[in-house]
Each structure stands twice: as structure tokens, then as C-alpha cells.
Automatic annotation (TrEMBL):
Membrane keyword on record: no
Family matches, as InterPro entries: Aldolase_TIM, GH, GH114_TIM-barrel
Protein name per its UniProtKB record: Endo alpha-1,4 polygalactosaminidase
Keyword tags: Signal
Pfam family, one: Glyco_hydro_114
Domain Glycoside-hydrolase family GH114 TIM-barrel: residue ranges: 45-265
Signal sequence residues: 1-26
PROSITE patterns with a match to the protein in the record: PROKAR_LIPOPROTEIN
Length: 277
């Protein structure tokens, strides 16, 4: 996770959901409904800061799980799969306290970059099963609302856990979440985490990637070598250290690369930025 936009309506809806909970294309398992993978070409938009009519020519739209999918596009549903949303913290603490990672003193462990997000505890099969059960409610809603795919943010939370979590534990949870997505007829996207490589995809079953700033951090090849054309890259206007024209000329960038403002605001906001190659 390299950016985050908090919406009050999103948080309220997420709390309600939590409160009810007790290169070749990956094929669906026998237990999964059929799903349509991310196209290998298209024009994406990343609308986590608020829904709006996509710019002309856009064919792929990602929105928060509480939003409705766009009409006439391939739609991706955003879900925070490995950390808690800030406004949902109380629900997690009250209803699923064992799912929260804690330090030796028993205090919740937060993301150093986003101290209002608690890390979910992926260390045991029992904890992973509980997390999956909770998040599967949101996944089901994504499917019911008509989304085509889901992507789970903060897959790399183990790198920010002070060595409490492990890559293996997070990948095990990822595999479980991927299965949940497939059961509801959704393709499932890996979020960032270029270090996974082909072996990580094999372990989890991810179908595509949503990457942030892979041009800026020179990570794009780590994704395209594994997923081919099924890679969406979102660059941010406040940190990109080269001109947008030069980005579009790069042969190494994913074909589906866009530029957005950091807070992912709507076109009504003066800070709105959207460009595509």
C-alpha cells in the first residue's frame, strides 16, 4: 500500500459488513464459480477516492467495495485484506480480537506508515480462517453488486510487522482469500509485492496485478514477467520523477499504466489528475 483514501461512507459500510460476519491465466478450481480474468489490454481508471463517470475510452474501473461498479466496464473491487480500515477498528477489536496482531504487551500492532490501521494476524491456520470468514462477507458483496474482480490490499504487511508476521503466513491467507474470490465468481488481483515472483503466484493463485508506482520504483518487470499483459500500474503525480511523456515511451512499462493524484479525488476537485498513455 503506497496510498490510502479514507471515505466516511466506505468506513461505515465496512463496519456494517464486519458486524455481520461470524503468464497463463489461472483457471477456476472445481469448487469455484466461473470468472472472467482481467483483459490483457484496456484503459483503466483507479477510483478509490470517490466514484465518477469514467473518462472517455476507459474500459476498466477499480472502486471501493462499498461502491457500485461502473456500467459497461470491467470492474475491480478494492478490499483491505491484511490490515483493518481505520473506522472499522472498533468492530474488529470487539468482535474478532484474536484476528489482530499484538506485541508482547498485548497491544495491537499498527502499520508504521498508517498508525490507524492494525495488522491482521496471519500466523496460524485458525487465525487465517477467521480473517477469511470475516473478509469473505465483503467479497460476497462485491460479487453480488456485479464486480468482475477483487484485489486485496496490504499483502506485504509482513514487511511492516517487526518480523512478527511471515511471508509464508501472508501467502497462506492470500491463497484462502483467492479461493473465496473465485467461489464468488471473481478474478483476484495481487496488490504490489513484486518480490513474490512466479512462485508466489503459484502458491496463491492470483490472476492479475494492480501495482502502484512500478515505473517510479523500477519494479514493473517483476510483474510483467509473471502476469504478462494482466498488469495495471498506477503512478502518482506527486512523486513521479520523470515526465509523463517519457513514461509512455518506456518499453518496460505495463501497457495499462495511468497517472493519478495521490488522494484519488474526483474530477470536481482541483487536485484531480488522470492521464493515460
Amino acid at each position: 500500500m503506497r496510498t490510502r483514501t479514507v471515505l466516511i461512507t466506505t468506513a461505515m459500510a465496512l463496519v456494517a459488513v464486519l458486524g455481520t460476519a461470524g503468464c497463463a491465466e489461472a483457471a477456476p478450481t472445481s469448487a469455484a464459480a466461473s470468472y472472467r480474468n482481467l483483459p490483457i489490454s484496456g484503459r483503466p481508471d483507479y477510483q478509490l477516492g470517490g466514484s465518477y463517470t469514467p473518462p472517455s475510452g476507459v474500459t476498466i474501473v477499480e472502486r471501493d467495495s462499498t461502491a457500485k461498479p461502473a456500467k459497461g466496464t470491467y470492474d475491480i473491487c478494492y478490499v483491505n485484506g491484511f490490515q483493518t480500515q481505520p473506522e472499522a477498528a472498533r468492530t474488529w477489536m470487539k468482535s474478532y480480537p484474536s484476528a489482530i496482531l499484538r506485541d508482547r504487551a498485548g497491544k495491537p500492532v499498527s502499520d508504521p506508515g498508517w498508525p490507524d490501521e492494525m495488522l491482521l494476524d496471519t500466523r496460524t491456520a485458525a487465525k487465517r480462517a477467521l480473517i477469511t470468514k470475516v473478509i469473505a462477507k465483503t467479497v460476497a458483496r462485491c460479487g453480488d453488486r456485479g464486480f468482475d474482480a477483487v484485489e486485496f490490499d496490504n499483502l506485504d504487511s509482513w514487511t511492516r510487522s517487526g518480523k512478527r508476521l511471515t511471508r509464508a503466513g501472508n501467502l497462506a491467507l492470500a491463497k484462502s482469500l483467492v479461493a473465496a474470490g473465485h467461489r464468488h465468481g471473481l478474478a483476484v488481483g495481487q496488490k504490489n509485492t513484486p518480490q513474490l515472483g512466479a512462485s508466489g503466484r503459484k502458491q496463491t493463485g492470483f490472476d492479475f496485478v494492480v501495482a502502484e508506482e512500478c515505473v517510479q520504483y523500477r519494479e514493473c518487470a517483476a510483474y510483467t514477467k509473471v502476469y504478462g499483459g494482466r498488469v495495471i500500474d498506477v503512478e502518482y503525480s506527486d512523486t513521479l520523477e520523470r515526465s509523463w511523456g517519457s513514461v509512455c515511451k518506456l518499453k518496460s512499462r505495463p501497457a495499462m499504466t495511468i497517472l493519478r493524484d495521490r488522494d484519488l479525488v474526483t474530477p470536481k476537485d482541483d487536485a484531480y489528475v488522470y492521464k493515460r498513455c
